[in-house]
Amino acid sequence: MSVARADVFGEDCLLRPGNTNCGGCGMSVGLTMLGRALAGESYSMVIPACCGIVTAGAYPTTSYNVPVIASTFASAPAFASGVAAVNDLNCEPGARTTHVICWAGDGGTYDIGMATLSAAAERNENLIYICYDNEIYGNTGGQRSSATPAAARTTTTPRGKAERKKDVIGIMAAHGIPYAATLSIAHPEDFRDKIRRALQIEGFRFFLIHAPCPTGWKTEPAESVELVRLAVRSGVFPLYEVLGGEHYRINVEPDGTDPAEYYERQKRFAGPGADPKALSRAARARMERLRKLAGRPAG
Q1: Inter-residue contact 187 to 207 (CB < 8 Å)
Q2: CB atoms within 10 A of CB 92
Q3: Which of 162, 165, 144 lies closest to 154 in space, CA to CA?
Q4: Which residues contact 88 (CB under 8 A, 6 or more apart)?
Q5: How far is residue 200's CA from residue 186's CA, in Å, rounded to a whole number?
Q6: What is the chain's pLDDT, residue by residue, as a tens digit (299 residues)?
Q7: Nearest-angstrom CA–CA distance, 135 and 263
Q8: Which helix (H) or strand (E) holds 168?
Q9: Longest dimension (CA), the chain
Q10: CB contact at 8 A, 136 and 165
Q11: What is the dihedral of CA 282, 274, 107, 216, to 10 degrees?
Q12: Could you give the angle at the alpha carbon of 34 between the alpha carbons of 138 and 68, nearest 5°?
């Protein structure tokens, strides 16, 4: 496997310019930041059905500057496990490791891909799994997923989703994997540090990126980075790590910003089922639980 072509695009290029992704796409920003964090590393990617594989474009050209395998919707971790096994067989003693990275949306992670994700985590496969979480099935019209927050309107929950969002980090931590963490495209240094830390760890590593979808979130493309920054400041999307499935560490403590501001800036929460005050109370309760897990005093 090869690294990104430094002679043409620069060694940190993962997503080439001229792709067809939407303006303000959190996934696109995440790919750019991932490429920078992996500069100089040898790696390949496995991507299931999602906006991320549409990004590649039509054969024989591609918008990705590294080797990419397109997997079935439910099977990215299984594909990646096979790639990692072949890499190990072909790796010469003392040679650099070629990293295998799954890049998947919430549909292929929280829902359709959960079985193979859990299986790979249980086996502690030596790969990195990254879920860019736009909280909907963005590639097929914006249907609800189990990552969709409570009260959010989607094409299949026009009055707002009744159920709360699934805690996928908690689920992965329960597998006892070596490393799990959240990432924000509004915090590039934290993003890079965590990716670089994961490269030094053997076994299964899991990341969750908060990735705005202006089309599905009913927001302006220019607001995407500010929205996810607001989510971290208010505790709606906390930045934290879990080591060995047990040791929680909060990386950025919320600054007291009212979570209601985050919800009120998105038209998807403007339906009859949305109550900003109730959503804010739930966000604060989740943050307090995380502080307890991390051994921190209550906020």
Answers
A1: no
A2: 6
A3: 144
A4: 126
A5: 24
A6: 334 444 445 667 899 988 989 999 999 999 999 999 999 999 999 999 999 999 999 888 899 999 999 999 999 999 999 999 999 898 877 777 799 999 999 999 999 999 999 999 999 999 999 999 999 999 999 999 999 999 999 999 999 999 999 999 999 999 999 999 999 999 999 999 999 999 999 999 999 999 999 999 999 999 999 999 999 999 999 999 999 999 999 999 999 999 999 999 999 999 787 898 899 999 999 999 999 999 987 76
A7: 14
A8: helix 168-174
A9: 62
A10: no
A11: -130
A12: 70
- 99, 46 contact by CB (below 8 A): no
Which two structure tokens, joined as six digits, stand for 83? 């790639």
Fold type of domain 26-293: Rossmann fold (3.40.50)
Strand pairing class (179-184; 239-243): antiparallel
What pLDDT is recorded for position 12?
77
pLDDT at 299: 62
CA–CA separation, 70 vs 78, rounded Å? 12
Q: Is 103 within 8 Å of 45 (Cβ atoms)?
A: yes
Contact 201, 194 (CB under 8 A): no
* 200 phi-psi bin (left φ>0, alpha ψ -120 to 50, beta other): alpha
List, in sequence order, every beta strand (DSSP E) within 215-257: 239-243, 247-252
Phi then psi for 158, rounded to 5 degrees? -65, -20
Token pair of 54 as six digits:
């549409």
Supply 50's token pair. Answer: 């999602």
Can the peptide bond before residue 60 be classed as cis, meaning omega within 30 degrees of 0?
A: yes
Helix %, strand %, coil % for the chain, to 5?
35, 15, 45
- Look at residue 159 in the predicted model and tell me its pLDDT: 94
DSSP state of 140: G
- Rounded CA-CA distance 107/144 in Å is 9
Write the single-letter amino acid at 115.
A
pTM: 0.94
